[in-house]
Write a structure and sequence with these properties.
about 280 residues; alpha/beta; globular; 11 helices; 2 domains; four-stranded mixed beta sheet; 2-enoyl-CoA Hydratase, Chain A, domain 1; binds coenzyme A; six-stranded mixed beta sheet
Length: about 280
């Protein structure tokens, strides 16, 4: 029997899929669900998969934090209150620096904390019909627990970030692309197939190179590096990558290109070993 009750964890062939599974509650994230996510992310990280997909059961991705179980029910017991929400901070921080490529597959309702989850993922493939919103102001708070951070770091401008924070207006999956929350939007009927195709492409690439893509992007983004520092940092990381992969990009990737076996503009080199 699975050790998880509120999520489904599947790990197979370099891919992990975690499904938020409280469809009767629109997959709202309760303290128990958060605690399970802490364990699940450790399990997936230890499995060294290349890609981790996060999605939801039923017609919701994540309806946000469980407003009753996380907030209302525990408010008068401060210790229990903090105990209930602390695991959410833990797994969200882990998600932000997760070693595998993280893909949010947004199949439906996506509110507040659900938007935070998507905002922390590397890639988001979303249903055009999905509905998104920063609903916090509607029940009297601001988007907290890291959600405002994801607004600032995903939305293209202050005017849009503050507009959706202050009005709680909803938007759909197509608009989510323009607003910076999603990489691609497709009709719901095509969401699974489209995501599978992208994931299949990702797992053909090297584990280390994808990790280094993420690390380099993160550092340059977070430290707001100046161009000369970024150039030096990137070349140093290239040597690190080369060492970690036993120079596979030269010995296999470019060797194969030299023989005109593939076109790097359109396809990846065939990995000869697990790097
Ligand atoms: N916390 C706790 N319970 C939630 C929830 C949440 N964030 N989101 C949905 N639920 C519960 C509903 O209360 C309802 O429970 P019930 O069957 O015991 O009455 C159940 O899930 C189904 O939701 P319902 O509201 O009937 O579905 P709907 O399709 O009419 O509406 C939403 C869907 C998502 C628009 C609506 O549920 C909603 O506004 N949820 C809250 C969104 C939100 O503000 N999230 C917090 C962000 S941090």
């Amino acid at each position: 029997m699975s050790k998880y009750k509120y999520i489904i964890v599947e790990i197979e062939n370099d891919i992990a899929t975690i499904t938020f599974n409280r469809p009767e509650k629109k997959n709202a994230m309760s303290p128990d669900l958060h605690a399970e996510m802490c364990v699940a992310l450790d399990e997936v990280a230890a499995a060294k998969v290349k890609v981790m997909v996060l999605t939801g059961s039923g017609n919701a991705f994540v309806g946000g934090m469980d407003l009753e179980k996380c907030f209302f029910d525990n408010w008068d017991d401060p210790e229990k209150f903090v105990e209930g929400i602390k695991p959410s901070f833990e797994w969200m921080k882990h998600l932000k620096t997760f070693p595998a490529v993280t893909v949010a597959k947004v199949n439906g309702w996506c509110f507040g904390g659900g938007m935070e989850v998507v905002g922390l993922c590397d890639i988001a493939i979303v249903a055009e019909e999905s509905t998104w919103g920063l609903s916090e102001v509607n029940f009297g708070i601001f988007p907290g627990g890291g959600t405002t951070w994801t607004v600032v770091n995903n939305m293209p401008s202050r005017k849009q970030g503050l507009y959706y924070t202050l009005t709680a207006d909803t938007f759909n999956g197509k608009e989510a692309v323009d607003l910076g929350w999603a990489s691609k939007a497709v009709p719901l009927a095509e969401l699974d197939a489209h995501t599978d195709k992208i994931v299949a492409g990702l797992v053909k690439k090297g584990r280390v190179v994808m990790q280094k893509c993420k690390e380099v992007y993160e550092r340059i983004d977070n430290l707001n590096m100046e161009f000369p520092e970024a150039v030096d940092y990137e070349i140093a990381k290239l040597f690190e990558l080369s060492r970690l992969t036993d120079d596979d990009w030269i010995r296999s990737g470019l060797q194969s290109f030299k023989k005109r076996e593939y076109k790097p503009g359109l396809e990846e080199y065939k990995l000869t070993k697990d790097v």
